[in-house]
Amino acid sequence: MMKYWVLFLVVLQAGCVSSNKNTELVSYREAAERGDVYAQYQLARFYDFGIGTLKDKQKAVEWYQKAAQQGYADAQYTLGTFYDYGLGVAEDRQQALHWYYQAAAQEHVDALYAIGMIFHSTQQHYPQAFYWIKKAADKGLDEAQYDIARMLTFGVGVEEDKQQAFTWYMKAAAQGHVASLFYIGSAYDFGQGVAVNKQSAFVWYQKAANAGHAKAQLYLASMFEQGQGTKIDKAKAIRWYLQAAEQGVVDAQYSLGVIFEQGDGVAQNIPEAITWYTAAANQGDAESQYVLGTIYESDKSEPQNSDIAQKWYLEAAAQGHQKALEALMQTPSTTRTLH
């Protein structure tokens, strides 16, 4: 009986929420029709996201347009995104830029960034892209700060300056930007704009890895495996390789194959090694393809399977893998030196 009462209360509450949203919709519509710019923007959002009504992108455009024409910056920016991505209107980058510029004139940070991205992605006008993205970065937008760091790293639209890039990565990282956490680790690891410091690299890779960054998980695993910036810890290395491998990182999948094949820090497990080599091989990793050939050809595989071995040698050889080419040129009876 109690569960039905709880269900009744949940349904009743949901009905009340829906009723409240419908009431808000009516109120915003009445105010919007009287020319209230804030109400016009909110009514557009209700249609945009289906709040208290069905989603209707065309009606959303209509009300965003009305608010934008009255100078409402959020509406101008949002209308720009509709033209940018063809939402409820035909895609039109010139119209998108028109509305982004209107919002940017009011220092709308997302509009500043959007202009920069149009110049970067569709027009490939990199100095202009840098100019607009930096405006957004200066106003604190973390994604813009990261992009400025990348452009400075590679000299895109601006002279290469890895020290300045490092400064921008730090600004974005201070806001929790995950990719920036990784690239700070990389900067310390390889001495890019800052002195090499393996301990600091380890700290920043760990921050990024804990936030789910796959490449940081790979690099952190490698540091645990090799004892760089920290003590050797094979168990932690395997744990981080697994996390990266499960996100599809080829090098992590290959490394797990090696670990399980050789029994390095874990009991030797050839079937598990085959699983991870195969995952990497299926993504086109030539070394994994070659190693699979050697395993299937040897007594490590139960049963041995020369046809599967041949298949993997051929795939590796097609990518120019020298040992795979040599393996294919040998007769089946010739003993091979395995990897």
UniProtKB/TrEMBL annotation:
<dbReference type="InterPro" id="IPR011990">
    <property type="entry name" value="TPR-like_helical_dom_sf"/>
</dbReference>
<dbReference type="Pfam" id="PF08238">
    <property type="entry name" value="Sel1"/>
</dbReference>
<dbReference type="InterPro" id="IPR052945">
    <property type="entry name" value="Mitotic_Regulator"/>
</dbReference>
<dbReference type="InterPro" id="IPR006597">
    <property type="entry name" value="Sel1-like"/>
</dbReference>
<protein>
    <submittedName>
        <fullName>SEL1-like repeat protein</fullName>
    </submittedName>
</protein>
